């Protein structure tokens, strides 16, 4: 018995779809990154320096990438909650994280972190740096860094230094200052820089190594007196305020910094796309003006993923040494 042979012809549209699915790169061409909105996670509450900066950059990234860029705040545990969330996210480039100096400090400070800032993240690029500034109440008799040191040495353990919390850059600036100057200053942690600054203005604490954008308006209004900035060069926002090097404290440079990172395993081509877009944003006139107004400094160009990675490693080494020498314990 003969079995009749049959020719099956697929409809043209279906045949084309199957061919596209089989051809390498065809799906990628149809779904070029990014094809939907991105989310940038900030490990702090809204209104702080990290949040303000991220929203400025997100607006620029949205224009460069042609997609909405949403800023999501996941505050808590000195930014560890937000970092862990992103570290466990998909590696498709749609969930990103704003890493800060706190993440490099936390690596040494916390013994049981559920993520590794080096292994679980792929750096994209630096977003900005800011100076910290040593401020006292404008009614304080202390008018210079030299007087601050003299008072601390004459009253060991009595001079108070407020911070936004244990392990923050504000706290660690104070600890590094103590190491460099051989002083005994009492650290007073708060739940955020806002309440710390309120008590400094109110006279309940003596000093604070605050993030510059946070204190800038209070310095200009005369409520706080700036003694020195923690950067290597004077900041444009406070051109009349000396650096600590100029004030006689050597080897004391602290930059609070902010950078964009993706979960480890994110494809290199996506990281390159994001790095290119970020650098275009940073060179735009609107961002330069916003940075100047808020006391941020743009990173030097070129600003590559590799350079940001090297910087992170150097920061980890610096703060691990400070944590060890300060014998800081986290409850």
Automatic annotation (TrEMBL):
<feature type="signal peptide">
    <location>
        <begin position="1"/>
        <end position="29"/>
    </location>
</feature>
<protein>
    <submittedName>
        <fullName>Tripartite tricarboxylate transporter substrate binding protein</fullName>
    </submittedName>
</protein>
<dbReference type="InterPro" id="IPR005064">
    <property type="entry name" value="BUG"/>
</dbReference>
<keyword id="KW-0732">Signal</keyword>
<dbReference type="Pfam" id="PF03401">
    <property type="entry name" value="TctC"/>
</dbReference>
<comment type="similarity">
    <text>Belongs to the UPF0065 (bug) family.</text>
</comment>
<dbReference type="InterPro" id="IPR042100">
    <property type="entry name" value="Bug_dom1"/>
</dbReference>
